[in-house]
Write a structure and sequence with these properties.
The complex is a heterodimer of chains A (about 60) and B (about 475). Chain A is mainly α and about 60 residues long. In chain A, about 50% of the residues lie in helices and about 0% in strands. Chain A has a domain at about 5-40. The chains are: A mainly alpha (about 60), B alpha/beta (about 475).
Chain lengths: ~60, ~475
Amino acid sequence: MAEPLDDYIDAVSKALALPVEDAWRPAVRANLEVSLRLARLVDEFALPDETEPAPIFTA
Amino acid sequence: MTTKPEMTASEIASAVVRGKMSALDATEAALARIKQHDGVLNSFTDVTADRARTKARAVDADIAAGKTVGPLAGVPFAVKNLFDVAGLPTRAGSKINRDLAPSKRDATLIERMEAAGAVLVGALNMGEYAYDFTGENIHDGPSRNPHDTTRMAGGSSGGSGSAVGGALVPIALGSDTNGSIRVPSSFCGIFGLKPTYGRLSRARSFPFVASLDHLGPFARSVTDLALAYDAMQGPDADDAACTTTRGLEPTLPLLANPVSDLRIAIAGGYFQKNVFPEAVEAVSRVVKALGATKVVDVPEAARARAAAYVITTTEGASLHLDRLRKRPNDFDPAVRDRLIAGAMVPAPLVDRAQKFRRWYRAQFAEIFKSVDVLIAPATPCTAPKLGQVNFNLDGVDLPVRANIGIHTQPISFIGLPVVAVPVPLEPLPIGVQIIAAPWREDIALRVAHALEKMGVVAAPSPKGF
């Protein structure tokens, strides 16, 4: 049975021309689940609209 | 004068300058120790013996000619193999990079160490592309812990920890993106300095995460750490993140200043969770010696760690995208699969992580209005067994790799300077983080020095080989 992220992995793999062999897929999926879970934790934190990203560029 | 394995850098330099020992003798002694012990420790991937002898002879010639030599005269040192070393391909722990052309020029920090008289003796093992906390390497084998060679050296600067902890060299250089200086320092029982983000030039080192990469020294004493750090300071146009606003700020003259005027606090909340009794004991000893009682709860540290994770995996993926396309089977599969997943994280989530970083930095700016130093564990545990997958904490099985850096990541996330100090517990040492406000490496080093003088922290003699 296909996992919920498999369609997404296939689409991004194609868009980026980034190969994901079948043997790697479970580990890629597991890592992506961790990354998205942690990203969600950051996403849930409300920030003021005017917040600048940390990296500073000086022209 | 013969060299003893655990002579500090300052002792070697002093003996060399006074003519009690030649730089060549100091170099030969280090090369002999590497030859004798590195078969077990596996900390070196390249030994640059010819280059080292040439440099040592040049230092000796300068002394014979009455020329002034630097404060690291004749001191052997080695670097994580992500530093460019002229004549070597910069492998960065990988198989793929071995195909690169040999570097034409040394990394800036090597040039500065050698300008101070130090002698490069080789390049050190590391986790592949620095995406690692264990010091294990699928291509080169693991760096081994000098106190128990069945255990991890810590990563990703595993060879740096192993070589200094094993007293093969008094000083090594490494990199720290999420904890890769502080973790090996903790596991190998040595001192490590992760300076403020932007303080030391990263020019001509192989990157990992541009937003979070730092370089810094390891040593067996705080004086040596300060000596190396001071020698490496200074602006560098070849690193876009290297400070242009801070001048040279030598720390060595300030080391012995009292710490009684400093406001020292214990990092609470997140930093007191997920720790084994050894880490609790180590923090307790440090805190007691410093007389610290105030506990400061660092807000949103778990989210900071999460944001550091997201930035790391996505910037790392960006760095390696083309190699992932062309040579995926030449990566360590564990690194490859994490990087591929990193390439698939949607961009808005990365932007939010960078914005959260700005917010979190402001929280620390508030904390540092009333506190000069924060004390926190460096690792949740002493060195795990090589290959160990899980550890059991409070009855819960947790993955080792993912949890080794939980206390270091929320600190490097906003680039704070940290000295990792070794508490010599038995049977294995463990580190504690001495964290200061941005650009106040001098304060962190001063506290580390005071603890060293009190005998609370020290690099134990290697006993594992």
